[in-house]
Amino acid sequence: MGAVHPRVLGYLGRALSLEFSAVQQYMTQASLVELWGDVDSATRFRRETVEEMQHAERLVQRMLALGVAPAASQLRPVAHAADLVGLLRLNLALENDLIHHYAEAVRFCVLVGDGANEALFRSLWKDEQHHGEDLGAWLRSLGSSPNPLMDRATF
Predict the structure, then answer these.
(1) How far is 66 from 34, CA to CA, in rounded Å?
(2) Cβ within 8 Å of residue 128, ≥6 positions away
(3) What pLDDT was estimated at residue 72?
(4) I want to staple 109 with a disulfide (CB 3.0 to 4.6 A). Which of 75, 114, 152, 155 is the partner?
(5) What is the DSSP letter of 155?
(6) Residue-wise over 5-40: b if at least 16 C-beta within 10 A, else e?
(7) What is the SS3 assignment for 148?
């Protein structure tokens, strides 16, 4: 494999940080909604955790193949809300950040003629678009108003 543009390496590192941020957020939210007694939502959040971890693994594998030490150095703090609707809105915002990041990375790879990394970023972009669509549909299925606030474990 030839030399990789430093900006592509930057996109890989930022993507890893965003994916691990998503893992951390979904994992925490799964435990939180389980405390609320919402086992179905906890299960969904755990599935999202696994999918985001798989994305992170793909990024780590690519970075290692390029001879770069993976480092997710800019994890975001977990976003929290008082109800499921609020959590989903926060998650949708994080997914949108991932979507925009991958779209930008794809555009740059096309610009510099880096087909291998373009393919990786394009695949992850499509996955995140699907995640965003699924979250949007889940949010719409709950209606526009949040559930009444009750005494719940929050952080």
Answers:
(1) 40
(2) 55, 95, 98, 99, 102
(3) 81
(4) 114
(5) -
(6) eeebeebbbbbbbbbbbbbbbbbbbbebbbebebee
(7) coil
Tokens encoding 77: 């703090």
Distance, CA of 50 to CA of 36 (rounded, Å): 21
> Which has the closest alpha carbon to 121: 10, 2, 3?
10
5 within 8 A of 112, measured Cβ to Cβ? yes
Tens of pLDDT, residues 34-90: 999 999 999 999 999 999 999 999 999 999 999 999 988 789 999 889 999 999 999
Give dist(CA 73, CA 95) in Å, integer: 19
Q: What DSSP string runs through 20-81?
A: HHHHHHHHHHHHHHHHTT-HHHHHHHHHHHHHHHHHHHHHHHHHHHTT-------PPPPP--
Amino acid at 6: P
Token pair of 6 as six digits: 């430093």
